[in-house]
Amino acid sequence: MKPPQDDLFSLLDESLVDVKEGDVILITSKIVSIHEGRCKKIGEGDIQKIREEGAQLVIPRNYWKSPLTAINNNFVSSSGIDTSNGDGHIIQLPIDPFASAEKIYQYFAKRFGLKNLGIIITDSRSQLLRYGATGCAIAWWGIDPLVSHRGKEDLFGKTMNVARSNLVDGLAAGAVVVMGEVAEAQPIVIAKDIPNLSFTDKNTKDKLFTEFEDDTFRVLYEKWL
Fold first, then answer.
1. 213 lies in a domain?
2. 7, 40, 76, 214: which has the highest count of C-beta atoms within 10 A?
3. Burial of 147 from C-beta contacts in 10 A (0-12 / 13-18 / 19+)
């Protein structure tokens, strides 16, 4: 996949020839962005404007060369723009990653005649008080992102009231370990036999994404809201 634009579906035709019922296909956002032409030559356009494009929140960092931003309900640097593997281009995130995930889902469902299939578009992020990047899901389609444990009992009979597991970010984190971060050229991972996975044809982002006012970490950034 070469910037500024290339054909993702040709790559999928060539590379994925045996997708099964129940598979979850994880695709790095970078090749989705290249497919959609979300690339600009370095030096072309206002970098500050590009950094803030689509951001839900911008927090300046005087100690760093770029702002911390919230985009796709995820805190990342500079709205996720990146120059790695860009061949002289800045690569922005897909403009509507859920629409992108749905399109890829429909492609695979039709091609292989599948009813139960998951698509996850991944990105990398840093986390509070930790070095190193981990994978996260910026969009998904075909699956429920959460598993609820409400009403279940733990080993000692205590009933769970609010516990839930975030499947899509967990799967994305594992997939990005396989994908790599530099020159591995492994932008697609297939996860199989995922326990507790529910399939759906609905847009389920509201099941996972919280509003700022409901976020348990709001205290860290609320003065910039």
1. no
2. 76
3. middle
Query: 42 in helix, strand or coil?
Result: coil
H or E segment to which residue 133 belongs: strand 133-141
Confidence band for 131, pLDDT divided at 50, 70 and 90: very high
The verdict on 66 and 164 lying in the same domain is: no
Q: Using one digit for the tens of pLDDT, what is the confidence trace for 29-77? A: 999 999 999 999 998 888 888 888 889 999 999 998 889 999 999 999 9
**164 alpha carbon, distance to own chain's centre:** 19
Q: Which residues contact 45 (CB under 8 A, 6 or more apart)?
A: none
Q: Which of 92, 110, 137 is the last residue of a domain?
A: 92
pLDDT at residue 162 above 80? no
Instruction: Tell whether 19 and 122 lie within a shared domain.
Output: yes
Question: Is 109 in the same domain as 198?
Answer: yes
> Domain span at residue 44?
39-92
Query: Based on the domain organization, do 153 and 179 belong to the same domain?
Result: yes
Number of domains into which the chain is organized: 2
Helices 97-112, 8-15: inter-axial angle, 10-degree rounding: 40
Is the domain of 15 the same as that of 74? no
The strand ranges marked E within 24-99 are: 24-28, 39-41, 57-59, 68-71, 74-77, 89-91
Q: Is 99 exposed, middle or buried (0-12, 13-18, 19+ CB in 10 A)?
A: middle
- Side chain identity at residue 39, one-letter code: C
Gap between the Cα atoms of 31 and 16, Å rounded:
15
